[in-house]
Records
---
Amino acid sequence: MADELVHYDVVGGTATITLDSPHNRNALSAQLRRELSESLDKARSDDAVRVIVLTHTGPVFCAGMDLKEARGAGAGDQGVNEFPKILEQLWTSPKPVVARLAGPARAGGIGMVAATDIAVAVHEATFAFSEVRIGVVPAVISLTVLPRLTARAAHELFLTGDTFDAKRAVEIGLLNSAVPAAELDSEVARYVKALALGGPKALAATKELLSKPRPATPSEGFEAMNKLSAGFFASEEGQEGITAFAQKRKPNWVPES
């Protein structure tokens, strides 16, 4: 049996999912896709998990689809057919997902970065939508990437396939933060700690809210949003948070330090 290419570990309410296929730059091979999807399912369904961190071994976060497996396969047999499920798992996870990049991402790897809630990379990380340069289209990843990027940047980078750095990735909305390599883990830990302070149900509902289309005017949305807000104020989780605030203590959902 082949060694696993994705490792799963839970410590203190944080599930860390690690891509470990450095021999092919963590390309999205059939085995890696399968194990990554299984790990995401596990993290999403575990009540003990509050935050998910997606990271990697080796110098590259993810090089995109495994082109060796794609070569010679018909449209119905391409591995990209399984990729929407992974992007959907990341995008709709009720638990916040943080991407930790100690190196570059390309193509489908950027699609995964865009599907997470928070993305942090080292200054040296580079990015490229390299699809057009091998005669394919960044179609599937466009569904997670385009909501993040400014329109001008998306047109430029999708059409040229040019490489861009982490500073540019922050400027156009792909990354939240770019830091020196020595500060990567502390920056990720800062976000994880902040996310774990939120109520689990409130975080899940807020993620859903962020993904919904905006009403044409605030007036069209007030009734539904007021119902959602009042329901959470009166909920068990909301009442625990309000009581904890009054008693100057942490709510019962905050993991022990």
---
Amino acid sequence: MRLVSIASGSSGNCIYVGSDTTHVLVDAGISNKRIEQGLNEIGLKGSELTGIVITHEHSDHTKGLGVLARKYGVPIYGTRETLEEISRQKYLGEYPRELFCAIRPDVDFFVGDLEVKPFSIDHDAANPVAYRIQHEHKSVAIATDMGHYNQYIIEHLQGLDAVLLESNHDVNMLQAGPYPYYLKRRILGDHGHLSNENAGRLLCCILHENLKKILLGHLSKENNYEELAYETVKLEISEGDNPFKASDFSIAVAKRDQMSEIITI
């Protein structure tokens, strides 16, 4: 399996997960041009995509969907409620709605030879999900846009080989920043986004010695920065109630405008 963040941040998200024969995007929240450039960098073309799985309908996860659908006719997977909301997004233009494939949380499905396991998250969207994706005995997960975590989420993130996890904001930066009060409340609420601290605490619950790579993603442009997210998460791991230190793991920050390294497991 390969995992690559093509873009991750509050302004746009697109993650590639694939095997030798199956090529999937998790979200398409950047321009088609940027998506195709990213695929080209890992030796693929848009025409080789097997499917696109969508976490939820917000534009930073769907922006490039219309062009991809028109150009390549690639199947689009999401919950029924998510797909209904996407069908109302005028900025996507016209594309074949028959490409939509409705899925349900906790009902696994296959895209090519990848087993996709959607699980519910709490976010201010119609019916959002995160995804665990498996191939043979390897598994990765992309889990962002969740206001909090619970035992259900922890259980779905056990035994991973790699994870891209939201580390959206620093609470102090957000509280002192320029956002209006209602938006601060939204981000900090149970249907908002994970803070750096909570990302670190969630990681403490899922760490194991065979976890090969941790990518911190969906960073806010206004309320976070890479070094702060990285150092905060490392501190939570090293001081948390777990047998590990942050130095035991390969941790990196997924950038909003640059690709991550190619993670091969």
---
Amino acid sequence: MEQQEQQDLHFVIISDSVGDTARKVLQAVLAQFPSLTVHMYHYPFIRKMKDLEPVLKEAKELKAFVIHTLVVENLSEFTDDFCEAENLPCYNILKDLVKDISKATGQLPLKRAGALHRLDDEYFNRISAIEFAVKYDDGKDPKGFLDADLVLLGVSRTSKTPLSMFLANKNIKVANLPIMPEASVPEEIWQVDPKKIVGLTNDAEVLNNFRKERMIAYGLSPETIYSDMDRIRAELEYAYDLYNKLGCIVINVSKRSIEETAAIIMSSIEISDTTIIP
């Protein structure tokens, strides 16, 4: 089959809120086409016709794909009609699902712009969880372990802090503690329900590379005790021994993204027996 000539693709993302939903859907689709040259134009908080019209005119000039999550009826329908008239590909991401849920339940949608991001209790709980993660990062205050929804343990470079922040955005209060053979484990850790503790680990070779890169980033020699393989193996052995004593879930993060590790944690918080996920 003859391959078509490569061309740039333009995508105009329109939302009445921050536009994360449409952007993430588009990114998930584009991940299947890594060789494409793509231009994204993001227009959040479009809530009035006077703001929408120039965006659609630009989409027409670019011959762009239009992706929107507009829920205010006149704006949503105007966008769909404009794209149909101008022969522009248009994807109203929420429309079909909203319609089907309404049909199945008999309930009408709110059609309120930015409903997902309103300043409600969930929003403020998320902010509180983020502040908690910052306050109790790297074991700054052992008292935080007793108040946390989740405690992450791990040797250096096992993604404790990024995971804490990611999970905080899911309204989970996370405290984390770096562990090493020379440092005693705070007494509070032994008072935490093992179901709320996750032990993070990594492959020795991966840790070796990460730690060397970190030293180089600091302008130091990559060959230090911090990146020594014997030292790394000793740390991992100490960590596994601690996790076994605590009876907590253990997750190897070496081949996992932050999102994947977080998903495993969120589905496993209630696990009581020690479970190792290689």
